[in-house]
Fold this sequence. Notes:
Elements: H1 4-39, H2 42-67, H3 83-113, H4 119-149, H5 159-188, H6 191-222, H7 227-238, E1 243-253, E2 259-267, H8 273-290, E3 294-301, H9 306-309, H10 313-316, E4 318-319
Parallel strand pairs: 2-3
Antiparallel strand pairs: 1-2, 3-4
Helix pairs in contact: 1-2, 1-4, 1-5, 2-3, 2-5, 2-6, 3-6, 4-5, 5-6
Amino acid sequence: MSGTGTDRTADRKTRVTVLVALLANLVIAVAKVIGGLIAASPALLSEAAHSVADSLNEIFLLAALRRSRRPADERHPFGYGKERFFWSFLAAVGIFVMGGCFSFFQGFEALRNGAEEKFSGYAAGLIVLAVALVAEGVSLLRALHQVHRQGGTGKVHDPALRTVVAEDGTAVLGVSLAMVGMALHMATGQVVWEASASLAIGGLLVFVACRLGRDARDQLIGEAMDPRTTARIRSLLAAQPEIDSVEALYTMRTGLDSSLVAARVDLVPGLESEEVEEVAVRIKRSVARTVPEAGEIFLDVTDRPAMEARGSPAATGERGGA
Length: 322
């Protein structure tokens, strides 16, 4: 497929972004656990769970980057591109369960049982959070830089990169909430502030997990190409002199940069069998040149007898650009 070298370069950049996020989260998770236990801080322990969840998710995303580029085989003739969507869905589940649910648990426990106040521990906890804020900020800037290089958030289709941006952005906001909750707890002696921060972190994580999970679900089920690309394919088909009308057009993303295109077309009368085959091959090659992500292109010709059309390339399809 054309553009493979560019795609692999983008993958390498995304892998570096994920590794930066993983390293930051591993270091921060250890620091937060130690600080949270010393300070007996529910907000800090919630943030520790958040960092552990993010670290596991980064491992999922690294697996997605590696496995989704495997070539097609007999068992998976359309390739393994949807592996990236599957592992991104697991990352969303990890954020929900390990991050959101644990944060809610910590918040409710703090409201029910209170929290032991240790000024020295809380001071250490705030220092840990300040360091975490810097580290998460650096990781977020790295991810946003790559997003900017790809044309902005509206043009980022890579679920791995989107997940890293969402995780880092949520982490920066979550650390800020934890710092505010701890500071107010220290100033007022009221644990409700820190418990509220923990509950807010949990709500934030659940919201982000649901958004990421919904996107991954749509892609796993079989999401169509974007409407502009679909309209361009339809216009290209309708402009062919041999096509009388485009009866139906179906598209489905089979990977990050590959899609399936299937069209049912009505040809003009009077074409011979050999002409139909030549026209079908030419049209599919034209679509493949115009839309490089169209890896598999199938045309169903409706104006020929079924038995005659069944064995032709127009009915069986040909890999785009072949």
